[in-house]
Design a protein that fits this description.
By secondary structure, the protein is of the alpha+beta class. It has 23 helices and 27 strands. It has five domains: about 60 residues, no CATH class; about 220 residues, DNA ligase/mRNA capping enzyme (D-amino Acid Aminotransferase, Chain A, domain 1), CATH 3.30.470.30; about 70 residues, Nucleic acid-binding proteins (OB fold (Dihydrolipoamide Acetyltransferase, E2P)); about 150 residues, 5' to 3' exonuclease, C-terminal subdomain (DNA polymerase, domain 1, Orthogonal Bundle), CATH 1.10.150.20; about 100 residues, 3-Layer(aba) Sandwich (Rossmann fold), CATH 3.40.50.10190. Strands 13, 14, 15, 16, 17, 18 and 19 form a seven-stranded antiparallel beta sheet that branches. A five-stranded mixed beta sheet has the order 2-12-11-3-10, covered by helices on one side. The longest helix is centred in the N-terminal third of the chain and has 26 residues. About 35% of the residues are buried.
Length: about 675
């Protein structure tokens, strides 16, 4: 217990140090992390050390000339959902079914503080409690009222004292015409609002969406001139504020349908949004004062996204395939600076209407490569994206199937070379490095996979920097794989779109021998889950071309294809691995699963049996989703115990968004016993 407490204290000190550092960077206009990343640090420290002095002090070390000011309305972080399932899970727990739905503006939060109807302070988000007082800049912004007209206080008898929340935005038109050098409207707006002289703030607008009565030190005090969220919005509009667009939805499905509609019209809006804010009609001051309000949620279009500019497209060559990769203006996503994004294929470029200079939405989910999700707009000066016409190696005209741009020449040297590399990689033949493969290929000695199995020690030893010992090690590594699964065998031949996972689906569907695969038609394979017509036809046509090479490899006795395991200890179970394993590589763990009759998945889905990670408390996307779905999360020793047929004890999965401070203490008696 003492060791656990000590670790918490060390972690709390680290968090306090990081928070102070990032507060100072923010206050000086040089933030290194996103608001969500700062919120995560803040929430973790609060859970470990709720009395830490960082929560009560005002950071005043800014060198930009802006004084610090407390918020009247705390700007805590919101619950977030990025898909209908996550939103529904939140909505069904709420005591209301009528939802107030507002655009989630992609700008910078600002609180306008009024005393007796007169603007006294305009405060940036800061750390959620304290921000920069940029009143002199805010007065230049469109939508900021220096004085509220008339007596808009309680009963219309006294002027209003309290806070008005809004978002500082820059319209797309202004960004395009005056600040095209900035990656997106949000970055441009943030830069202008923190300028010492306020230059350019006249190009910014403030859209309001919240208000509360109160005075410094006594928020939510006094009578409000509104009794619910609808009256609040009406009151803001009657004062003369520009109010964020709002809809009223009855029921969960109406919200989901409205979100889909907004996602469709998003490119046509005059400003950037990244989701919807959902709340009930009733005003709950206690909820608003929480670090993370429970009765409202940000229903985002994606959990991790940013708007930026597409600057260039280059074509990555892998085997026969040419894949478009985008170079974009740098943006922060998931704690990293992103400068490239995957465009997948020519169809995606056409479907999204992308051009060089397009403003785009980029997302990053988990650890995968960032992806361009949507077009925001095409300014007038954009240019067309040019795709290559011929193979850079053999000169053959490239084939464009929409979903794939590739060299159709079966004897293209680049294609043959890549197939050899793929074979070595899939079979995990470790002593065969890329350099050795390249030298053997360029010499002409090895051009096809069966050629590998005719190599001799003398041939290899005669190569530069090899020798007998190295040659023997290479051949031992190659011949050690005497038998492979059908999935590995076919995947090793580098057929586009056919990896081990897709082959496993065919094996499970009954195509569990090479002869059955050779006899299958495109229509047969298309009936298998996730096999569309294009992929099915690609496999059939490539099997016909590669059949002599495949049969030569098996008939020579170089290796055998082992039958699938049907009744192993993992039969009917599926595993997904995330993070580093200590005793084996991830692909070795996946092979172990398959050798015991189970299946290995690359993502967390509802039918997953176990998520395996050596950091069970991780907040990674896979761990969060597993907790949301109630999927057991086990570590590597527990996984190996299951592989030995043992029963293990597992803590029931906790809700993904529950902070340690709010979680019930784990009870050793409250465990599940899991076995196979």
């Amino acid at each position: 217990m003492a060791e656990k407490t000590g670790k918490k204290a060390v972690r709390a000190r680290e968090l306090e140090k990081n928070i102070r550092y990032h507060q100072n960077r923010y206050y000086n206009g040089e933030p290194e992390i996103t608001d969500d990343e700062f919120d995560a640090l803040w929430d973790e420290l609060r859970s470990l050390d709720p009395d830490n002095q960082v929560f009560t002090e005002i950071n005043s070390e800014s060198t930009d000339g802006f004084p610090k000011e407390y918020h009247l309305i705390p700007m805590g972080s919101q619950e977030k959902a990025a898909d209908p399932e996550s939103f529904t899970a939140w909505a069904v727990k709420m005591p209301f079914a009528h939802f107030i739905v507002q655009y989630k503006l992609d700008g910078a939060s600002l609180e306008l503080q009024y005393e007796n109807g007169v603007l006294t302070h305009a405060v940036t988000r800061g750390d959620g409690r304290v921000g920069d007082d940029i009143t002199r800049n805010a007065r230049k912004m469109n939508g900021v009222l220096p004085e509220l007209p008339g007596a808009y206080g309680p009963g219309g008898a006294t002027p209003f004292s309290g806070g008005v929340r809004g978002e500082v935005i820059m319209t797309r038109a202004v960004h395009r015409e005056r600040f095209p050098d900035k990656a997106n409207c949000r970055n441009a707006a943030n830069g202008l609002m923190k300028r010492k002289d306020g230059t350019g703030c006249e190009y910014l607008e403030v859209l309001c969406y919240d208000a509360a009565p109160g005075i410094p030190g006594s928020p939510f005090t006094g009578h409000a001139p509104f009794s619910d969220e609808i009256e609040k919005l009406d009151w803001l509009a009657s004062c003369g504020f520009s109010v964020v667009h709002t809809e009223h939805c009855e029921g969960v499905q109406a919200v989901i349908d409205y979100r889909a509609k907004v996602m469709d019209i998003r490119p046509e809006l005059p400003f950037d949004i990244d989701g919807l804010v959902i709340k009930g009609r009733e005003i709950d001051p206690d909820d608003l004062s929480r670090p993370r309000p429970e009765k409202q949620i940000a229903f985002k279009f994606s959990l991790e996204e940013a708007v930026t500019v597409l600057r260039e497209v280059f074509w990555s060559e892998s085997g026969a395939t040419y894949t478009p990769i985008a170079r974009i203006d740098p943006v922060r996503l998931a704690g990293t600076t992103v400068q490239r994004a995957n465009l997948v294929n020519p169809n995606m470029i056409a479907e999204l209407g992308l051009r060089i200079g397009s403003r785009i939405v980029v997302t990053k989910r988990g650890e995968i490569i960032p992806k361009i999700e949507a077009l925001v707009e095409n300014p007038p000066d954009t240019t067309a994206i040019v795709q290559p016409d011929t193979c850079s190696v053999c000169g053959t005209a490239l084939a464009d199937e929409g979903t794939r741009l590739y060299c159709p020449n079966p004897d293209c040297p680049k294609r043959l070379h890549h197939r050899l590399e793929k074979w070595i990689d899939v079979l995990d033949i470790r002593s065969f490095g890329e350099n050795l493969i390249r030298r053997l290929f360029e010499s002409g000695r090895v051009r096809r996979i069966p050629d590998l199995y005719t190599l001799t020690v003398d041939e290899l030893a005669a190569m530069e920097r090899m020798g007998n010992q190295s040659a023997e090690r290479v051949l031992r590594s190659l011949t050690a794989k005497k038998s492979v699964s059908l999935a590995e065998f076919v995947a090793g031949f580098d057929i586009e779109g056919i990896g081990v996972t897709m082959m496993d689906k065919l094996v499970d569907a009954g195509y569990d021998t090479l002869d059955k695969l050779f006899a299958a038609s495109g229509d047969d394979l298309q009936a298998v889950y996730q096999f569309g017509s294009t992929l099915a036809q690609t496999l059939v046509s490539q099997l016909a071309v590669l059949r002599p090479e495949m049969e030569d490899l098996v008939d020579s006795g170089a290796l055998e294809i082992k039958p699938p395991v049907r009744n192993g200890i993992f039969a009917g179970k599926s595993f997904c691995f995330t993070g580093e394993l200590a005793g084996m590589k991830r692909n070795e763990a996946e092979r172990l699963v398959k050798s015991l009759g189970g299946s290995a998945k690359s993502s967390v889905t509802r039918d997953l049996s176990f998520l395996v990670t050596n950091e069970p408390a991780s907040s990674s996307s896979k761990s969060r989703k597993a907790r949301e779905l109630g999927i057991p999360i086990i570590d590597e020793p527990a996984f190996l115990a299951l592989a030995r047929g043992e029963t293990i004890a597992v803590e029931p999965p906790e809700p993904a968004e529950t902070s340690p401070a709010k979680s019930p203490q784990k009870d050793p008696g409250n465990q599940m016993e899991l076995g196979l």
